[in-house]
From TrEMBL:
Membrane topology value: Multi-pass membrane protein
Transmembrane segments: 9-28, 40-64, 76-99, 119-141, 153-174, 194-215, 227-249, 284-309, 321-341, 347-364, 373-394, 414-432
Keywords of this entry: Amino-acid transport, Cell membrane, Membrane, Transmembrane, Transmembrane helix, Transport
Function of the protein: Component of the transport system for branched-chain amino acids.
Gene Ontology molecular function terms on file: L-isoleucine transmembrane transporter activity; L-leucine transmembrane transporter activity; L-valine transmembrane transporter activity
Matching InterPro entries: Brnchd-chn_aa_trnsp_Livcs
Protein name as annotated: Branched-chain amino acid transport system carrier protein
GO cellular component terms listed in the entry, alphabetical order: plasma membrane
Family membership: Belongs to the branched chain amino acid transporter family.
Record's subcellular location: Cell membrane
One GO term of the biological process aspect: L-leucine transport
């Protein structure tokens, strides 16, 4: 039975890390560290549980299912499986996720060095995104080379830059931890837990998981057990790298109170920190790190989206589809970062909890005998909260409903869908037990036949 070498698995793991690690992942930990102060240790542990743990569960769910996101979502219903998968790919793909990588790379990696005139900024954004997505398109042309180009080249360079910044902060600490902000005084672990949940990498895991599986298959691994083992090992490597980087970036924020106490976000914190540590060279270093982080994520999203839509529309070639995706993403990226975020947040609030519930249920599939009613009940319970939250985010007045929802456990913290999901799953299990004959979702397919 063929197995990959440790070097090959390491390269795949580093590729997965880079696909996960976008600019947002660089910004969240410093912001959390600054706010947590002396409660940093508890907060970063909570952050890692959801910022690393949930994405790893997503990759594992794809590996164990032997298919892709649609395979898992179809356990609810085949139509739901298709619609939900398309919505996920469009949301984190050409509508929001891919364009945002180009906008963030420009805002943090290029804009600081350019004229502040509005007209010049708009033209610069256009030229930058054209070049940025042209490079992305080239990197996506041959998916089989993703491991070599990202895992062996771009990821080590990104990690090197982060290591330089982190080591410098350890050798010459900026300052001591300050008192925690109000939000981190009572339950820093819970607050960090929720911050990690907001990284949105769990949805990315459902997309990137199939990229990793494909990379393993292209190296001649066809045995189901070996596929799962290799994919999970790569996931652990990616998770370990993510955790180390989060700890380092969080520490930067926690020790930067003296120079970044008035910063509004993690991007400003990082900018102040690198300027303090390296002077003007720090802007170049940070800009390069942000650009690499965005580029690797963009490549992963376009590759995964292109492969999925190529399977959905066989008349369109992969090359043509990634061309359409990069062109569309270039156009959307020029709307500006603020507009893209404003449009994406309600959609992500609506669909993200659904993705989490699907992942968790996939691990208990055999224990509740694969009853479709369990999936349906849990998803309905989740949707009645998450979709309302999405409409509220859009500005739709639903005060009567939200006043009632405020009585739900953890609703004020933003995860009020947990209790309805559990109740829906339990009701689904009872319904599944009462039906004769008991309908079951099709068991997981053999991976060597996918």
């Amino acid at each position: 039975m063929k197995a990959l070498s440790n070097k090959e698995i390491l390269s795949i793991g580093l590729m997965l890390f880079a696909l996960f690690f976008g600019a947002g992942n660089m910004i969240f930990p410093p912001s959390m560290g600054l706010a947590a102060g002396t409660s940093y240790t508890s907060a970063i542990i909570g952050f890692i549980v959801t910022g690393v743990g949930l994405p790893l569960l997503g990759v594992a769910a794809i590996a164990f299912s032997g298919g892709n996101l649609q395979t898992i979502a179809s356990r609810v219903h085949p139509i739901f499986g298709l619609v939900f998968t398309v919505v996920i790919y469009l949301a984190i793909g050409p509508f929001f996720g891919i364009p945002r990588t180009g906008s963030v790379a420009f805002e943090m990696g290029m804009a600081p060095f350019l004229s502040q005139a509005e007209g010049a900024s708009n033209l610069s954004l256009l030229l930058y995104t054209v070049i940025y997505f042209s490079v992305t398109y080239w990197l996506c042309l041959n998916p089989s080379k993703l491991v070599d180009r990202i895992g062996n080249l771009l990821t080590p360079l990104l990690l090197l830059i982060i290591a330089i910044i982190s080591i410098r902060s350890l050798v010459a600490p900026i300052g001591d931890f300050a008192a925690p902000s109000v939000a981190y005084q009572k339950a820093p672990f819970i607050k960090g837990f929720i911050e990690g949940y907001l990284t949105m990498d769990t949805i990315g895991a459902l997309v990137f998981g199939i990229v990793v599986l494909q990379a393993v298959k292209e190296r001649g691994i066809t045995d189901r057990r070996q596929l799962v083992k290799t994919t999970l090992t790569a996931g652990v490597i990616a998770g370990a790298a993510l955790a180390l980087v989060y700890v380092a970036l969080g520490y930067l924020g926690a020790t930067s109170q003296s120079i970044a106490h008035d910063a509004q976000n993690g991007g400003q914190i990082l900018t102040m920190v690198v300027n303090h540590l390296f002077g003007s060279f720090g802007n170049v270093l940070l800009g390069l790190a942000i650009t690499l982080a965005c580029l690797t994520t963009s490549v992963g999203l376009i590759t995964a989206s292109g492969q999925y839509f190529a399977s959905l529309f066989p008349s369109f070639s992969y090359r043509k589809l990634i061309g359409i995706l990069t062109l569309f993403s270039t156009v959307v990226a020029n709307l500006g970062l603020s507009q893209i975020i404003a449009l994406s947040v309600p959609v992500l609030i609506g669909i993200y909890p659904l993705a989490i519930v699907l992942i968790i249920l996939s691990f208990f599939h055999r224990y509740f005998r694969g009853y479709r009613a369990v999936y349906v009940g849990a998803l309905i319970g989740t949707a009645i909260v998450s979709l309302v939250d999405a409409f509220v985010q859009l500005g739709v007045p639903l005060d009567v409903i939200t006043a009632f929802y405020n009585r739900l456990p953890l609703y004020p913290e933003g995860i009020g869908w947990i209790a309805p999901a559990l109740v829906g799953a339990l009701l689904g299990y009872l319904i599944g037990n009462m039906r004769k004959p008991q309908p079951r979702v099709q068991q997981q397919p053999r991976m060597d036949k996918v």
